[in-house]
From TrEMBL:
Component of cohesin complex, a complex required for the cohesion of sister chromatids after DNA replication. The cohesin complex apparently forms a large proteinaceous ring within which sister chromatids can be trapped. At anaphase, the complex is cleaved and dissociates from chromatin, allowing sister chromatids to segregate. It comes from Papio anubis (Olive baboon). GO terms for cellular component: chromatin; chromosome, centromeric region; cohesin complex; nucleus. Keywords: Cell cycle, Cell division, Chromosome, Chromosome partition, Coiled coil, Nucleus. It is found in: Nucleus; Chromosome; Chromosome, Centromere. This is Cohesin subunit SA. One of its GO terms (biological process) is sister chromatid cohesion.
Length: 1200
């Protein structure tokens, strides 16, 4: 337990002292009279009246008791038997009524009400201790805090402000709202009674100095919110004082005959009372600021520091006359060097609220000049959120005064428009737009109605091009456009202006764009069109496509229409102008991908389509560059859409072009491959250029009808024979042949894929470890083991093509309903596929755990594949009993997780889905047979995996709620009957490792699975130890022997087999239950028959045919007995009880080694001596080392 330090928390606020808040933040002193009335003067208006002072007739004595007091809270408005903490925790919407109840209680007896409030803060800190009336009367605050610290339980580490869950997320806002409403409701009387606020401030100051994090965090938040509420009160008082002063001056300036002396006296008295109240508030704020803020803004906990900085930003914004000066701004400036991004972020958001108000700019000049470089450097902060807010802050600084930021400062922000993190780039784009694009010359006012080259955006587009070229990141135009998309949409969508700058001649006196500038403009124009048509950021920014809103979809359609109408006419002209420039043409040819092709017909633009097709054809003939040719191919692909009426027109043009290219290629190839002639370079170039064009088109178009494979094969064959074929020709011939094969593969039907699957399974079986059987060790290099990805692909194929509903596979090739015989044939094919995969499992070609997805289908598809799945279970159990058991429990876990994903954790345990999983578990349990000795280790391992799965996911709401997977124990209990009696005890001990003491006491419905599973382990009698002769195998395979061994020997063997659950290996393959036999490779099974339909014709299968008729396997009786995989020891000497190690270790709470010697003088604000009679006479040195939260470079900074 952490001992409470000696903290002088009970400072005397009744001391005669100065009333100035600080030398830098004096409130306005009207007529130079800022003196406080001493004791004995007339009470101020609204202060201590008899009702408030009398404490309900008790005179501050023993607190009242009776039916109207329950749990320390006065019953009002139906809130009964509840403490303040409980009411606030409930998040009551009517917080004002809660506060009104407390005020009534305070007027009745202020000691009892304050005791409620003190316990409220203690409970909000997560402390279970309670401050009694006796403690409140006779103990100092430091003693009370020490007592609460001793009763604080820090083992959990959680307290209300940090707890998870929806209820606790709302608690913080309710807690803060309560404090704000409390001050607001008490601002006219109670806060001036020299008792309530003194007590609260003293308590919070003491708690904020505690070494207990929960106390320090909660009290700091409360004190800062209390300060914020008091600042609001002070602001209102200041406004009232100004109004009163104006009224007083106006009345005094009247002529003597019209002047009302009584009114002057009333106004003077009112001003005097307001001044006294303001002095009171100043004293309170001074106490909180010096007692809490000055220490806690450099606390070791980042969240506490963030609270302080957030609130001081509110004070400076709310009451700038008092707080917005360098004495307070320096705290924000210092904290911008904080090591935690959360705190730096609060600094920036606080400053944004100040810079947003241009009226405050004059008060920020010194701060800006001192900390501007730090803000600029924060644009490169490692925390993206901090960098974004730093850029936004600089944008506000730029708007307030452009002279503040130098050209170098701006350039540091400019390059961030190319950042891969979109929020950073967007913020930088807004800064760039404000700096370079938001200003207009007076001459441009008359150009607002003009369009195109003479429009107002022409110069801005040129500026954008110049900026893009100067940044020297030409491949990132899409990033630049995306960065400015939100703030400069009108500029970026002015495609008419961009088109005009490219096609029209420059005006007189206007400088024409250079070739490099035109290329940049075309690239930017393409990026803007892509962004408008696709409505998502470029690749590398964002997580993918998002769902568009109705408004965004309408904007997208409008933009595509605008793009099509403009560029359907302009694109042929642009292609004609730049037809010889490969870079420009490549970008321009991408525009049709974003057209609305229907407009070609509805807008009667067919002649422009013909012009476009002619230009593309000319470009194909002129260029051999791969990028240009692929752009032409993609453009044809985009235009050849069968949904639109222009398809026939484009298809004819494409076919004519391919015909010419294919004829030319065949003609050139004949001349090129003539025997006895040496091909010259010109012939090789002609063949290569034509082959390039054909290859580029074959990438996006199916050119199978031109039979390009034969001529390419002939070309490659000749090159192999002669060895003198040019390398580029060989490369493009291979690439073209590659596309031919890909297009053929794309036409493969479903039946081909099933044949391929069967062949693949047979190949894997042939080249498995079985190939080495019979002493053929020399074939070991041929053994192939499929990797995990191939195994997953095989399993996915089975799940997609075998485990399907009958109605999903009932259409024949001619599209008519199949008859009964066809359905049987389809079922036979699916059974063959499943049998081929199960064969890989049984012969350990693939991992056994892949069978989990097969086993979980046992009940659902029992009629179709039940015999195959059951036989697979039997064979896998012969290979490895334990791994088979782990696979069975894995299949149940998968079904359980699928149910959780569909229904959530609050599912109904009586639902059909959950009942189905339990029934499947019961069927699995039956497959283990009656001989419990043979399966005891496998069953025990099954229970171990099930228990671990049930307790794997703790409940986020705390230990009082069950683990999320606890209901799985209900399923696991189906296997309890397969445990021997002594094994049940061992499993029960293992279960208790995961249980807490509170769990064992729970009796609610949600804990029923745990109770039922425990009962299933505790149940059992002597019949559990009876030996059962093994021999039960698959159906009809053997006849169980009715002979049994003598009972004495049987009892000795059974009782001697105790399971050791104490030692677990860290490896995933480690055994929970150790076994004594040495490890041997399983005896090789008989080489399986192949199921490939290429090797043999499938035999028509009747529904009643068994699994063995599909692919024969030798049964247990005709093969060599398997020497199962044994590890460790499974028998303990004699009848000793199993030893279970206690894995619980006592943990000691560690207290941070906090430095009590603070040498951080620059952090203390220089406040003058105060006349406030409530000011603390001494502030406790802080406990925290600033070096733990700030860079060393900050500590020596000289301020202002």
């Amino acid at each position: 337990m952490i001992a409470a330090p000696e903290i002088p928390t009970d400072f005397n606020l009744l001391q005669e002292s100065e009333t100035h808040f600080s030398s830098d933040t004096d409130f306005e002193d009207i007529e130079g009279k800022n003196q406080k009335q001493g004791k004995g003067k007339t009470c101020k208006k609204g202060k201590k009246g008899p009702a408030e002072k009398g404490k309900g007739g008790n005179g501050g004595g023993k607190p009242p008791s009776g039916p109207n007091r329950m749990n320390g809270h006065h019953q009002q408005n139906g809130v009964e038997n509840m403490m303040l903490f409980e009411v606030v925790k409930m998040g009551k919407s009517a917080m004002q009524s809660v506060v009104d109840d407390w005020i009534e209680s305070y007027k009745h007896d202020r000691d009892i009400a304050l005791l409620d409030l003190i316990n409220f803060f203690i409970q909000c800190s997560g402390c279970k201790g309670v401050v009694t009336a006796e403690m409140f009367r006779h103990m100092q605050n430091s003693e009370i805090i020490r007592k609460m610290t001793e009763e604080f339980d820090e083992d959990s580490g959680d307290y209300p402000l940090t707890m998870a869950g929806p209820q606790w997320k709302k608690f913080k806002s309710s807690f803060c709202e309560f404090i704000g409403v409390l001050v607001r409701q008490c601002q006219y009387s109670i806060i001036y009674d020299e008792y309530m606020m003194d007590t609260v401030i003293s308590l919070l100051t003491g708690l904020s100095d505690s070494q207990v994090r929960a106390f320090r965090h909660t009290s700091t938040l409360a004190a800062m919110k209390l300060m914020t509420a008091l600042v609001n009160v002070a602001l209102n008082l200041s406004i009232n004082m100004d109004n009163t002063q104006r009224q007083y001056e106006a009345e005094r300036n009247k002529m003597i005959g019209k002047r009302a002396n009584e009114r002057l006296e009333l106004l003077l008295q009112k001003r005097k009372e307001l001044q006294e109240n303001q002095d009171e508030i100043e004293n309170m704020m001074n106490a909180i600021f010096k007692g809490v803020f000055v220490h806690r803004y450099r606390d070791a906990i980042a969240e506490i520091r963030a609270i302080c900085i957030e609130e001081i930003g509110i004070w400076m914004k709310m009451y700038s006359d008092a707080f917005l000066n360098d004495s307070y701004l320096k705290y924000v400036g210092w904290t911008m060097h904080d090591k935690q991004g959360e705190v730096r972020l609060k600094c920036l958001t606080a400053l944004q609220g100040l810079y947003y108000n241009k009226e405050l700019n004059s008060k920020l000049e010194l701060f800006t000049s001192r900390f501007k470089d730090r803000i600029v450097s924060m644009t490169l902060d490692k925390e993206y959120d901090v960098a974004v807010q730093a850029i936004k802050l600089l944008t506000l600084v730029l708007q307030s005064s452009e002279e503040v930021l130098t050209a170098e400062d701006c350039e540091n922000v400019y390059h961030l428009v190319y950042s891969a993190h979109r929020p950073v780039a967007v913020a930088a784009g807004e800064f760039l737009f404000k700096k370079l694009f938001s200003r207009r010359d007076p001459e441009e006012d008359g150009m607002m109605k003009r369009r195109g080259r003479q429009g107002p955006n022409a110069n801005l587009v040129k500026t954008l091009v110049f900026f893009f070229l100067e940044s020297e990141l030409h491949e990132h135009a899409a990033y630049l456009v995306d960065s400015m998309w939100d703030c400069a949409t009108e500029l970026l969508k002015d495609w008419e202006c961009m088109n005009s700058l490219l096609l029209e001649e420059p005006l007189s006196g206007e400088e024409a764009l250079t070739d490099r500038q035109e290329s940049a403009l075309i690239e930017i124009m393409l990026c803007t069109i892509r962004q408008a048509a696709e409505c998502h950021p470029p690749v590398g920014r964002g997580t993918g496509k998002r769902v568009l809103t109705a408004k965004e979809k309408k904007t997208q359609l409008d933009d595509r229409t605008k793009i099509t109408e403009l560029f359907a006419v302009a694109l042929p002209q642009l292609l004609a102008k730049y037809s010889v420039d490969a870079e420009k043409v490549t970008n321009l040819l991408q525009l049709p991908q974003y057209f609305d092709l229907e407009i070609y017909t509805t807008g009667r633009l067919e002649k422009h389509l013909d012009a476009l097709l002619r230009q593309i054809r000319n470009i194909v003939e002129k260029h051999t560059d791969t990028d240009v040719l692929e752009a032409c191919s993609k453009t044809y692909h985009a235009l050849c859409n069968e949904e639109f009426t222009i398809f026939n027109r484009v298809d004819i043009s494409r076919s004519q072009l391919i015909d010419e290219l294919a004829d030319k290629f065949n003609r050139l190839l004949e001349d090129f491959l003539q025997e006895g002639e040496e091909p010259d370079e010109d012939d090789a170039y002609q063949v290569l250029s034509t082959l390039k064009r054909i290859t580029a088109f074959h990438n996006a178009h199916d050119l199978s009808k031109w039979d390009l494979f034969a001529c390419n094969y002939k070309l490659l064959k000749t090159g192999i024979e002669n060895g003198d074929m040019p390398e580029q020709i060989v490369i493009h011939a291979l690439q073209c042949t590659h596309y031919v094969i890909l297009w053929q593969l794309a036409k493969i039907t479903e039946s081909s894929s099933t044949k391929a699957f069967t062949i693949l399974c047979d190949i894997l079986m042939i080249f498995s470890h079985q190939i080495m059987s019979g002493g053929r060790d020399m074939l070991e290099p041929l053994v192939y083991t499929p990797d995990s990805s191939l195994q997953s692909e095989l399993l996915s194929f089975i799940l997609d093509h075998v485990f399907i509903e009958q109605d999903d596979d009932n259409n024949s090739a001619d599209g008519q309903q199949e008859d009964e015989a066809s359905k049987i044939e389809a079922l036979h094919k699916r059974r063959n596929l499943l049998a081929a995969f199960c064969k890989l499992i049984v012969y350990t070609v693939v991992e056994m755990n892949t069978a989990a997805d097969i086993f979980k289908q046992y009940m659902k598809y029992y009629n179709d594949y039940g015999d195959i799945i059951k036989e697979t279970m039997s064979k896998t159990r012969q290979i490895d009993k334990i791994q088979c058991a782990k696979t069975l429990i894995l299949s149940l876990q998968q079904l359980f997780n699928e149910m959780i994903q569909e229904n959530g954790y609050n599912f109904d345990r009586s639902s059909s889905t959950f009942s189905g999983i339990k029934e499947l578990a019961r069927r699995f349990a039956l497959t283990f047979g009656l001989d419990q000795l043979k399966t005891r280790e496998a069953i025990a391992m099954l229970h171990k995996d099930g228990i671990e799965f049930a307790f794997k996911e703790p409940n986020p709401q705390g230990e009082s709620h069950p683990p999320l997977n606890l209901a799985f124990l209900d399923i696991l209990s189906e296997f309890s009957s397969k445990l021997l009696r002594q094994d049940k005890r061992t499993v029960y001990v293992y279960l208790e490792k995961f249980m807490t003491f509170q769990m064992s006491l729970r009796r609610e419905d949600v804990w029923l699975p745990l109770m039922s599973y425990r009962n299933s382990l505790l149940a059992g009698g002597d019949d559990d130890t009876m030996s059962v002769i093994s021999g039960i195998s698959s159906r009809g395979s053997t006849v169980r022997s009715k002979k049994s061994k003598p009972s004495t020997g049987k009892r000795k063997v059974v009782e001697g087999m105790q399971l050791s659950l104490t030692e677990e290996s860290s490896s995933s393959d480690s055994m929970w239950l150790s076994r004594e036999q040495t490890l041997h490779t399983p005896v090789m099974m008989q080489t399986p028959q192949l199921t490939s339909t290429i090797m043999r014709e499938p035999k028509r299968l009747r529904p009643e045919d068994s699994f063995m008729s599909v692919y024969p396997m030798q049964t247990e009786h005709h093969q060599t007995p398997l020497d199962y995989n044994r590890r460790g020891t499974s028998l303990m000497e004699d009848d000793e009880e199993p030893i279970v190690e206690d894995v619980m270790m006592s943990s000691e709470g560690r207290i941070e080694d906090l430095n009590e010697g603070m040498d951080f003088d620059t952090m203390d604000i220089d406040l003058p001596p105060s006349k406030n009679r409530r000011e603390r006479t001494e502030l406790k040195p802080d406990f925290f080392d600033p070096a733990s939260i700030m860079d060393e470079s900050v500590l020596g900074v000289s301020m202002f």
